[in-house]
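Re: weekly structure request thread

Next one in the queue (72 aa):
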Amino acid sequence: MDKETLLKKFGKNVKIERVKKDLTQEQLAEIMGVSQNYVASIERGKENMSLGKILELSKSLNVDIETLLIFK
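Done, posted below.
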């Protein structure tokens, strides 16, 4: 798997979990203390997040980090 594919799959997982929680990108951004554009970039697979930020994101979504990192 190349980096681009990995980021897109991760972004898809983020979007799935955000929608399950009935959150908008703006609401998730507010919870995380980031911009809505940053959340949109993550979901589009354009943002290469650090592990620390991924952990923060998983906590913001109230899901195990593994949920975001499993690629089917």
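Helices lie at 3-20, 25-32, 36-43, 51-61, 65-69. Residues 61 and 71 are 18 Å apart (CA to CA).
Next request, please.
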